[in-house]
Design goal:
Elements (H helix, E strand, L loop, with lengths): L2 E5 L8 H16 L3 E4 L5 H12 L4 E6 L14 E5 L2 H11 L3 E3 L4 H15 L7 E4 L6 H12 L5 H4 L3 E3 L2 H9 L6 H11 L3
Parallel strand pairs: 1-2, 1-5, 2-3, 3-4, 5-6, 6-7
Amino acid sequence: MQSVCVYCGSHSGSRPIYAERARRLGQQLAENGISVIYGGGNVGLMGVMADAVLEAGGEVIGVIPEQLVNWEVAHPRLTRLEVVPSMHLRKARMFELSDGFIALPGGFGTLDEMFEMLTWRQLGIGDKPCAFLDVEGFYEPLIVMMDRMVAENFVNAGQRHDLWHGEDIDTMLEWMHSYRPANADKWLEEKRRSVPR
């Protein structure tokens, strides 16, 4: 694993622990020689994480849509900043550049981007690891909702468990390095067989 995409808030959240965890993640990724792909912003957890990578001597590539260059305040000191025409192209470009995906705490945008990657993987478009790096239970309600989706037969249990959730960065990186994807083709075939004809 040479590069990971980190999704996180353009705000810092209400508690200092969020920025502390973003900073630590950036440091550890740089120390492990892993390039970071992210949204290109200089604000919130995005800016904190990117600065930590750069300060530790790591590589950071930002991908930002034209309309957000001023809104999210494009980071001026990145290894490389790619400006793309739309959010759709941003997601596609991040996917191309990344070997895996990590979600720190964030808002609608963070969840939108991570769930699109989970959906692509579910459909067999990609086979890259996805991890929710939690901070003091921030993602616990979301994990409960995923389990509800499985219980109500909207999500396949194998696909639900084909992601990582926890608070330890080292454990997460070990999981990502050794990741073996669930068999999307098998899951899709089972889904086709279950559709009434």
